[in-house]
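queue> holo job accepted (zinc ion)
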Amino acid sequence: MAIVVMAGCGKEDSAKPSNSYVIGTNADQSNNSEGKGAHEEEPKGGSGQSSGQDAEHNGDQPSGESSNGVDKAAAADPDSIAVLINKELALPEDYEPSDLVYPDVRFTFKEKIEKRMMRSEAAKALEEMFAGAEEDGIYLAGVSAYRSHSTQRSLFNRYVDRDGEEKAKTYSAVPGHSEHETGLAIDVSGSDGKCAVEDCFGGTKEAEWLAQHSAEYGFIIRYPEGKESITGYKYEPWHLRYVGKEIAADIFARGITLEEYYDAVPVSGTP
Ligand SMILES: [Zn+2]
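queue> job finished
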């Protein structure tokens, strides 16, 4: 359950500049524009995840189906739970999810603030996942979920003022390119908050549980180990992205990334 609100928070990290384009409301709206990569990696505090909407319920969008039946229009629809956001693909600057709520789960902080919110479908799935984990003796906590465009911009600008733009881009996502801005992503830790959004979270029993079971609830480990050249991000065992059960199951079973699911061009590295 949750209360509908609108807000945002978070930050991300990126590696290097690249061409990017903004995702429009339909598949052919990808314009070339200046952009760079960015992802999430919060210094302290956490980041989040997000989700969108059912790929099959995009009525009048251009279909753009690929040979494997994947509806590519969903990848470009900012309101789709299957939207693809990465260092090349950005959300429209004025995008703001319309159905943000506070998931009724444990977080590493008490305040009802922006980074506690997710889109309603993702929030419900998160509640089910945390409950399922507890049945297995795994106690999770949210660290950081939604982050508005303005929050991401403020964070990024702060880093630019401190370290210069080039360096800032190596650890913070360029505004519009953070998955946390979709309301479908969340950074998760164990209930003690240890190793939150840090490499040492990898290998913990919580990380292992998430890797094995998150897909059952519609989430994927968005930046898997060994897929850095495709996602553009290092392994982040804590960053979960809601994509819906059907897509999550497919991605989990095939051991692929969201980019590969859409046959998207790798964000960095060689194809
Ligand atoms: Zn994150």
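queue> Residues 1-20, 25-62 have pLDDT under 50 and may be disordered.
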